[in-house]
Amino acid sequence: MVALFVCFYCLVYSSQYNLFRNLLDSVFSIGLIFLVIGMAFYIHNIGLFKTFRYWGYRVRARRTMGKNSAYDAKPMNFVAYTEHIMALPKKSTAHYLLWGLALITLSSVLLLLRINFA
């Protein structure tokens, strides 16, 4: 997928810039995308977003309880819900962050080399 994006980007902008500039831009774009994906997954599981998830759970639980009168249990409180969510296995997003940082760093170093030797 990454290779297809690089090829597409180089073909589209081949008339405006040279190949090296296109490769730098596409590597930087891909690194930025990986970094945003990794940070979005990371932020989703902390702080304020956890509170929003709890509010959504509480609303869904109350709707379910209203439809099913035989279900008399209350929704979990915030602490129990957080412990339950934390007990679930998490997907590691470290590879997104590492690839994103590596690609952005590579792009920046190559750009600096290009500027210094051009």
What does this structure look like?
The chain has helices at residues 2-12, 19-44, 47-67, 78-87, 94-117. By secondary structure, it is an all-alpha fold. It has a domain at 32-111. The longest helix has 26 residues, at 19-44. The two termini are 31 Å apart.
In short:
With 118 residues, the protein is an all-alpha fold. It contains five helices and no strands. The longest helix is centred in the N-terminal third of the chain and has 26 residues, at 19-44.
Order of helices and strands: HHHHH
Count the strands?
A: 0
What does the overall shape look like? Answer: elongated
| Distance separating the two termini | 31 Å
In DSSP terms, counting alpha (H) and pi (I) runs of 4 or more, how many helices? Answer: 5
The assigned structural class equals: mainly alpha
Ranges where pLDDT stays below 50 over 5 or more residues in a row are none
Compute the CA-based radius of gyration.
Answer: 23 Å
* Overall mean confidence score, pLDDT: 77
Give the helix proportion (percent range): over 70%
Instruction: List the quaternary state of the chains.
Output: single chain
Question: What kind of sheet is the major sheet?
Answer: none
Strand content: under 5%
Which features characterize this protein?
118 residues, mainly alpha, 5 helices, 78% helix, elongated
Give the secondary structure arrangement, pairings included.
Blueprint lengths: L1 H11 L6 H26 L2 H21 L10 H10 L6 H24 L1
Helix pairs in contact: 1-2, 2-5
